Amino acid sequence: MSLDPEAMAPPETPWQEFLRIFQKDYQALFGFWVLMLLLVTALLGKAFTEWWVVFDPEVVRLTDKFLPPFSVPSPDSLPTDRPFGGMYLMGTDELGRDVFARMFQGSFVSLSIGFVAVGISLGIGILLGGLSGFYGHVKLWCITVDTLIMRFTDAMMCFPTFFLILTAVALLPPSIYTIMMIIGLFSWMGTARFVRAEFLSLREQDYVTAAKALGIPEGRIIFRHMVPNALAPVFVSATIGVASAILTESGLSFLGFGVPPPDATWGNILSDGKGFIFDAPWLFFIPGMAIFVVVLAFNLVGEGLREALNPKLRSR
Amino acid sequence: MWNFILRNIGQRLILLVIVSFVAHSFIHLAPGEPSEVDPMNPRMKPEDIAKIRAAFHLDDPLYVQYAYWIRDLASGELKSFKDSQPVLPKIWDRFLNSLPLFILATILVWTWAFPTGIYGAVFRGGLYDRSTVFLSYALISVPGFFLSFLAILWVVGWFGVPVISIKTFGMEHAEPAYKIMDRVWHLVIPSVMAAVGGIAILSRYVRSQMLEVLSQDYVRTARAKGLEEDTVIYGHALGNALLPFVTMFGLLLPGLIGGSVIFEQIFAWPGLGRLAYEAILSRDFPIIMTLNFIAAVLTLAGTLLSDILYAVVDPRIRLH
Predict the structure, then answer these.
(1) Is the C or the N end of chain B the one with fewer CB within 10 Å?
(2) CA of B124: which chain A residue's CA is closest?
(3) Which letter, b or e, does each residue of B225-249 get, where b requires 16 or more Cβ atoms within 10 Å of its Cβ?
(4) Chain A CA closest to residue B287
């Protein structure tokens, strides 16, 4: 009897299996499309407000203060200052700036804060977690690498994170890069802990022993064989991390330590708008709802990824 | 058992030392200086700044400053940069103000999260389950101050009661019943707002933990031998599902203290969070360091307590 290669092949690749489960999760799918839309918006926002200025978020028109959404500019405003399309889609703020243009610009800034912060925290988390998971038994003088790194992680976890971030942001010179860096620098602890756990269990797997027996160099074993297998939970926590970075940024803005002007982020549009909640509710509700929807989308996608990537949850 | 407890305390003591290093050094690594708070003030001469720096040992190397800090903290003589008041009594006063908020928020979290999560797990996939899961995502996705502002607008507009600060000014001579109601309204809204995030997160943990336990073999055995569904769920599964949450006692604390910065700012509540915020604004290093340190120590104590409790309720842990 000859073996049929078709029958021998696994019924579906892990990727196909992942897609099948993810597509059945309507909430996650909804989140995914919201995020795609956001990504396009952010890129267009960067393009249209900085490279090829169609919407200028920084034009101040004192004649057009506090116009509600969908209102047309007043006749005595300068023709050169008219918004694109001749209408303020989301109204204007206390300086007569076009809120739509500011939200458009802010989408890119907010998103990049989330991504850079998560990038930094993942970098530190994977490095420290991987080190203590793989080289944990190595001794430096009297303590092992694992003890050293994990005790430091435990110590960092004792502090109230938001308070640490707030202190650091308040003491350092205000800039958008400081905020990205600080948020990243103080949120790697969770990642480090589960990357370590993942590495500890992967190190004992047969395929790693096999790779060692074949004489594959250690670096290649780590990066080519182990890291891809430890990546699933990292991916999940990255998605949720972006969400919490955006929330942290809006919290910092609320306390007055957000991204300094003229850069607009959703967080600082929201916190500027809180003073005009009765006179100009759109200044408060539009950025608030935008943050809510986007963070919700990130959380739903993260949770959908967790369900689809985690074989333990799947079997149930 | 004693062995386990002693080893745990030993580990926590080492952590405590690391925590104190981190709390002290991290603030001095940043470039901001207490003497730079008011650079435009014409009355601040260079000599004054030098005097301030000398008085607070700011010119000494870091490890000497650390030693001074520990010494002053231990002897209770640590003074605030801003008004030269002792730090510990100041923090203690604010802590007493925050305490009702913390307690009520914690009670709300623990009493709401468990029934919500357990019920969701038992009726998995039902309308209730799906809507609470979605609601919990929604609640962790809202910026805290956005939701609080909406709540304030709603409560003030609907019930016509003031909610900002601890109590309404000028109520000293009112009837006791009015005074109590006034305090209750002022306390409830900020506590609910502070608890909302915790409820959303914890109820999801409870739900997934309960699902995990319900899928185990002994639950199937209990069902197979013909026990009532209620006995299976509440008698057999629930206890094991709730075990891990003993350890979450301590880890909730940093969130409460960190989150209080925002909530106490919104509700003008003169507690720890506002003290921290004011200290940050005025570069009041001793207060910032001590607050961080105390928060970390409380967390350490909380995790220690819950680890010991966990070992008491679950003997399997002691073997590790």
Answers:
(1) C
(2) A316
(3) eeeeeeebbeebbbebbbbebbbbb
(4) A167
Report the residue from A156, A172, A267 with minimal CB separation from B22: A156
What local confidence, expressed as pLDDT, does residue A315 receive?
45
- DSSP assigned state of B86: B
CB A169 within 8 A of CB A181: no
- Burial code (b: 16+ CB inside 10 Å, e: under 16) for B118-140 equals bbbbbeeeeeebeebbeebbbbb
pLDDT digits (tens, 9 = 90+) for A72-96: 777 777 666 677 777 777 878 878 7
Q: Distance between CA A299 and CA A314 in Å, rounded?
A: 19
Query: What is the rounded distance in angstroms from the CA atom of residue B54 to the CA atom of residue B255?
Result: 36
HEC profile of chain A? CCCCHHHHCCCCCHHHHHHHHHHHCHHHHHHHHHHHHHHHHHHHHHHHHHHCCCCCCCCCCHHHCCCCCCECCCCCCCHHHCCHHHCECCCECCCCCEHHHHHHHHHHHHHHHHHHHHHHHHHHHHHHHHHHHHCCCCEECCEEHHHHHHHHHHHHHHCCHHHHHHHHHHHCCCCHHHHHHHHHHCCCHHHHHHHHHHHHHHHCCHHHHHHHHCCCCHHHHHHHHHHHHHHHHHHHHHHHHHHHHHHHHHHHHHCCCCCCCCCCCHHHHHHHHHHHCCCCCHHHHHHHHHHHHHHHHHHHHHHHHHHHHCHHHHCC
Cβ–Cβ below 8 Å for A251 and B281: no
Mean pLDDT computed over B25-35 = 68
Interface test with A, best of B267, B280, B294 (most A CBs within 10 A): B280
- What DSSP state is assigned to residue B235? I
pLDDT digits (tens, 9 = 90+) for B191-237: 998 888 888 988 888 888 888 888 888 888 988 988 888 888 888 88
- Residues of A within 8 A of B265 (CB-CB) are 254-255
Q: Do B257 and A160 touch (CB under 8 A)?
A: yes
pLDDT for A117:
94
Amino acid at B35: S
Q: Which residues of chain A have pLDDT under 50?
A: 314-316
> pLDDT (tens digit, 9 = 90+) per residue, B109-148?
889 988 898 888 888 888 898 899 889 999 989 988 899 9
Cβ distance of B259 and A292 shorter than 8 Å: no
